[in-house]
Amino acid sequence: MKRIYLPKLGSFGLSRRRQAEPARWFGRLKFRVMPELPDITIYLEALEERILNQPLQHIRISSPFLLRTAVPPIGVAQQKRVVKIRRVGKRIALGLEAELWLVLHLMITGRLHWREPGAKLARKLGLAAFDFPNGTLLLTEAGTKKRASLHLVEGEEALSRLDPGGLEVLDAALEAFATVLTSRNHTLKRALTDPALFSGIGNSYSDEILHHAHLSPVALTQKLNPEQIGRLYESAQGVLRQWIVRLRDENGAAFPENVTAFRREMAVHGRFGQSCPVCGSIVQRIRYAENETNYCPTCQTGGRLLADRSLSLLLKKDWPKTPEALEQFRAVRRR
Hints:
Blueprint: H1 16-20, H2 22-29, H3 37-51, E1 55-56, E2 58-61, E3 80-88, E4 91-96, E5 100-105, E6 110-115, E7 126-132, E8 135-141, E9 149-154, H4 156-160, H5 174-181, H6 188-193, H7 203-213, H8 226-251, E10 284-288, E11 291-295, H9 297-300, H10 309-315, H11 323-334
Antiparallel strand pairs: 1-3, 2-7, 3-4, 4-5, 5-9, 6-8, 7-8, 10-11
């Protein structure tokens, strides 16, 4: 195997500093992920306790990019009582009197906070404040890319147009799950994270579901046998329910402030380079655009190392096929 020089790269994409300080690097990543079904569920439960049947007194918006609708005007939502709270995919929908819906999409770094009545918006991160008699709901967004959005729509039909239409896994029977899963011949990772196929599942929990099911993220949906589909269905329901309970217990009666999809208790997601809690193998990754898929070769791919697009195109025939070959490759580069 010929030696290839990759400057400033340690363990296939992780700098040596990041390898030496995984906990600190882990902490820096924790806000760079979109809240998914378990996180949104906990948000909804906390909001129900605080604002259901409460009047929305005022809406303060500091970012001109947040509000994505002009009709009806945002002012008509003020002084309306919250009568429903619902999840729409990865969005939070607040149902108001007069069939109005305030729909929040937190995107990657948007977060909600519950503060005292009339709380001020943070100068840099604050996007909007929703004032209630008993407190203020703040919407913040970290980072320079302002992607979070707020829609005000009227009626169920208008609300449904914001719904990608994916199947609600926790409410679905196995037959419905199998039908949706095999309706298109995608990789399992792509299928689980497609909001038009499955509602509320994103990058982090799809990694955990696939690891629990012992299935490869690049396996094709239409190549799965009935036993594998059943295993995936049970894992999807089990992992999502388990994390809802875990997050509920973690937050207790407090408003959820530490909403992140990078958690130390996870088996593989966000754990590249660390040991799989099931078999002890090193967790690997596939990187593409701004996303990363984490998996265990031993548990999920029969020991085969999946090609990482960020490096396999560069290495071509020298790309290691197994974790053992990968370690040999690293040893050569360290000389």
